[in-house]
Specification:
Layout lengths: L16 E2 L5 E5 L4 E2 L6 E2 L4 E4 L8 E2 L4 E6 L3 E6 L18 H9 L13 E5 L9 H8 L1 H15 L3 E7 L10 E5 L8 H9 L7 E5 H13 L5 E6 L2 E6 L4 H7 L9 E4 L6 E2 L13 E5 L17 H5 L6 H9 L3 H6 L10 H5 L6 H15 L6
Parallel strand pairs: 1-14, 9-10, 9-12, 10-11, 13-17
Antiparallel strand pairs: 2-8, 3-5, 4-7, 5-6, 7-8, 13-14, 15-16, 15-17
Helix pairs in contact: 3-5, 8-11
Length: 381
């Protein structure tokens, strides 16, 4: 059986490795507004979809090619071998304001945290989940780009104080920030808990939080004028730069990873990640890890009845009742879930990990939030 590992410490001695471009990209476009049609040719960096959300990030092609398949969930781009690329935007010449925000949004950045000022800006420099070392890798290798992104964020947020939260014993730092040390144990890396550690307050109105990964992408957009089209992922203890839409099958072939019948392939982290339904599924924004869970290594999730053991309540860092939230979601009583503070859930995944009967509690909570968001009943969901 797999032993649950909570440590956020990692070894980042190696540099980020590059993958060869796949023959096709499968890009997730669910809940996005498509800007291209089947059969249309696109250049690398060209806009392919927008998010209807007010501050949502646009989506761009990571390679040049032809859109061969288009449906509600996915867009497939077949690589044509050409090096066609969209023209860069001169972000450096732009001053802080609405035009800069719209430009960043159009280049693939979610600008919600940048859209208004705050007294405190907290940079979350902890690795997001056990087994993922992306944050430390960037702090080690990309300080110049991170500081460029930080200066851009500060120009929009205009904070009085800027803090960098890093693991205890860490020597990483960024110019112009005060360091706050956090015990490197999950779930201490969650934004809400990092802010509480830095400010001593829960959900303070005068504080904005950005991850090191956010800063890195801001810095790259500023330096290159090109949209964000890739992510850095920890796979097998090493970090790789992976284009959005790269199929899992391509990654496994490149790294000689064998997937056997019954194995689970999880994108992102072991606590908050999601198992893929197909090896043709593509990597998406916010995926920072790839994990293979062998058949029988960990008890599988089952849609079992809650036995009221209370383990999920005891493990919840937000002091919620995940058992009740999952029940309301299961029976589509979403308004009841909201009354039980659904939107205060951090989605840390500890409830599902500690559930005695292995109920899909996190999946139920995400389902409830998604349904409320889709219906327009909740702006916070």
């Amino acid at each position: 059986m797999l032993k649950i590992h909570y440590s956020l410490e990692s070894d980042v001695q190696k540099t980020v490795s590059e993958f060869t471009a796949p023959s096709e990209l499968n890009i997730q476009v669910r809940n996005k507004i498509l800007k291209i049609k089947k059969g249309q040719k696109v250049a690398a960096g060209e806009l392919i979809a927008e998010r209807p959300a007010k501050f949502g990030a646009a989506c761009h092609a990571a390679i040049s090619g032809k859109a061969t398949k288009v449906n509600y969930h996915h867009l497939t781009i077949q690589y044509d071998g050409a090096e066609d690329a969209a023209q860069p935007v001169d972000v450096k010449s732009m001053g802080p304001g609405k035009d800069l925000l719209r430009t960043l949004q159009g280049l693939g950045m979610n600008v919600a945290a940048l859209s208004s000022r705050a007294d405190n800006l907290v940079i979350n420099g902890l690795n997001p989940e056990p087994g993922i070392s992306v944050a430390e890798q960037l702090l080690k290798d990309e300080r110049e780009t991170l500081e460029a992104g930080l200066r851009l964020a500060e120009s929009l947020i205009t904070p009085v104080h800027t803090y960098l939260a890093v693991a205890e014993g860490s020597s990483y730092e960024l110019a112009g920030t005060g360091r706050v040390f956090v015990k490197p144990k999950y779930p201490n890396s969650l934004d809400a808990l990092v802010v509480k550690k830095v400010t001593g307050k829960e959900f303070p109105d005068d504080t904005k939080v950005l991850s090191v990964m956010d800063l890195y992408n801001l810095g790259r957009v500023l330096e290159t004028g090109m949209p964000v089209t890739d992510t850095i992922m920890t796979i097998g203890g090493n970090n790789y730069r992976v284009l959005f839409g790269t199929p899992i099958r391509h990654i496994c072939n490149e790294l000689d990873i064998e997937i056997k019948s019954g194995d689970k392939v999880v994108l992102d982290g072991p606590f908050r990640g999601e198992a893929v339904y197909s090896l043709d599924e593509g990597v998406k924004k916010g995926d920072y890890g790839l994990f293979i869970i062998s058949a029988g290594e960990f008890p599988s999730i089952e849609d079992a009845t809650c036995i009221n053991c209370g383990e999920c309540v005891l493990s919840c860092p937000a002091r919620l009742q995940p058992n009740m939230l999952s029940r309301f979601a299961e029976y589509e009583m979403f308004d009841k879930a909201e009354k039980f503070h659904l939107n205060s859930c951090f989605e840390c995944g500890l409830c599902s990990f500690n559930c005695t009967v292995r109920r899909p509690i996190l999946q139920y909570i995400r389902f409830a939030k998604e349904q409320l968001r889709a219906s327009g009943q909740s702006e916070k969901a």
